[in-house]
């Protein structure tokens, strides 16, 4: 019987009960649950974070990109073909004539020249990727020139491996923006930076509809995209809590969850309602041993630490789905990466090395690490492994930027940190893990090798020389040798490489994560 | 109280506001500058070369002495310039106009639910002291106050969203309603009403009720306990015994004589609870993906985005001050002893 009380209860509950009808996302809209609070700018000449790179990768095109089928090869995106002059200094790119910006205007060499010049002139964080070819604010207008609407000529300062330039141009910073739109929104001499942080002016498959910090990014298809885009809208929703991401995926409120943790992934593995896609990311976790510390400066101690750790147990017990054991400075999937993990837990060998270093009873040391997971658990496992060979580790937990700040100032002893490659060329990591030409505290080039106060002239010189090697095969062989020598001599205990796993509803097709965030493309995603 | 004395009290109260705000800005500024995180890192990232790091440091004025930096900041602040947030690329003022209404909406609904349920429960527990009703209410309050709020929030999601399907999931609105009504006040329910869009209004209310309910349960537990304690004190008062001896009805004795005397103290409890909620319920906002001030403040702090931290802290400070002043004024208006 319908009483006054039941009517009151029903009317109060109406917003709840009736909500179930809206649970599933619309068929043409793809909703991705992701932690997106790392975005600080969506200007491709400034964006340098994972999510920002991914969004820019979907809104902009570059001259060239790594071939998705074989990333060690380069293919043209906006460029139809290119030539390298015999002197190795001049690169001529011939642009495709059917590429159009979201505004409907064709992509021209003038836009490409403006974009690369803009990267140099703005001099934001990723500018060094372009600047390392000798471009400066003063010379860039003469060094990057559009000779006609579809021909672009770049003149670099010294001869380099051509693939090095191509991979650098394939980074987010090499994205081509529409000059007229950007300059129409410029304020003072900001070259449109203020406007482009929250808007887009590209020729990629999508255009930015809105970015609400810590809330959502909404992308709509570029109506002038060369290939028709399947989804009518892609929404990245900021869902900070992985447990909430899983709940929303299970309810159909999101189509793809990007930040699930190992136990959550396990809970959906084998469930036919979901599919999982994964890719090794160019992000590695390692322990930096500061060479200013007298004990850590001993080569035997560096090796002892490497032989004391139970890599397999850490991976299996702490990061079974999100990281895999990786012990070389080039991430798996990169050109010239080798899949060799020589170190494993061997306490006897570690103790022998310590004795050889004059430390048979071990020593005391501190390890800085981020307080978040999985770093906190990994640090505890490292503490136990090192204690077993006599190295007494005091753990110093802190916010991740605090740990990075400390390592940048070379104030750590041991630090558990991570590193993501800047661009898809071996030199990106080869440089930072090896080159240190000035080990003084006031050095200009502060690579990871510098941060650990480590100078190995041989490896430093070889890294600097190999970037100029024009014979691709020779270059790969040299990087392979360098990785082995680095394992034997460096103060970097390379532990793990990140694996990105995305879980999606079974109705979702065409989504794959890529090693570099800018290559995770949404244009082929569809729902059946 | 003489007119002169009242004016003096008013002047002292008015003077305390800028002094408190100045202290707040000074302390937050100093904490921000001594934090072991390089604020330049938040802007340029870990991989930027030294020339970019140094250029950014110069642009931020971080190379100048600390007192100079503070004077510059306060100077801009007095002109209403809170600076620009590096995490959102917007001015901090614009961010606060976007994030604070989300918290205001959540906190207001939460405090209304908490007060409407908590006060009657507290009164009931006091009147029925020692009975089963009292025990049940006290257990409910104890659970509300002792259960970590993230557990409550996740349990709520699990039950009402995942299992029963009665409530929508995290977020302020469903994806299909995104950007459908113009942001006038940034209070989504109000904007939907202004636009006359009932679908969006219904969706916004549905999204609001669950996080507000979780926060309300947490606040209700405190309000009910305080109400019970005040009422027990009041019910043992001589004026209540006199009222009963005069043969007044139980309801009149409880609500007019006993409750009437605790209402002033309750206003303070409600004002401070509301202030606490307006500060931003970080955990609830995180679990429910609610883009409020608490989440903004936390993310900014972890990224050393000091303009954002200072701006948000000022808003929180102002809110506390305003609600304290309101409680003070309510005391003066309602309590004859203060008059």
UniProtKB/TrEMBL annotation, chain A:
Keywords in alphabetical order: Signal
Protein location: Periplasm
GO cellular component: ATP-binding cassette (ABC) transporter complex; outer membrane-bounded periplasmic space
GO molecular function: peptide transmembrane transporter activity
Signal peptide: 1-20
SUPFAM superfamilies: Periplasmic binding protein-like II
Cited CDD domains: PBP2_NikA_DppA_OppA_like_7
UniProt entry tagged with the keyword NAD: no
InterPro entries assigned to the protein according to its UniProt record, in alphabetical order: Peptide/Ni-bd (IPR030678), SBP_5 (IPR039424), SBP_5_CS (IPR023765), SBP_5_dom (IPR000914)
Keyword Repeat in record: no
Swiss-Prot/TrEMBL GO biological process terms: peptide transport
Domain called Solute-binding protein family: residue spans: 73-440
Similarity comment: family membership: Belongs to the bacterial solute-binding protein 5 family.
Protein name: ABC transporter substrate-binding protein
Automatic annotation (TrEMBL), chain B:
GO MF entry, a single one: dipeptide transmembrane transporter activity
CC annotations in GO: plasma membrane
CDD domains with a match to the protein in the record: TM_PBP2
Keywords: Cell membrane, Membrane, Transmembrane, Transmembrane helix, Transport
Pfam families in the cross-refs: BPD_transp_1 (PF00528), BPD_transp_1_N (PF19300)
Domain of life: Bacteria
Protein family: Belongs to the binding-protein-dependent transport system permease family.
Protein's UniProt name: ABC transporter permease
Organism encoding this protein: Limobrevibacterium gyesilva
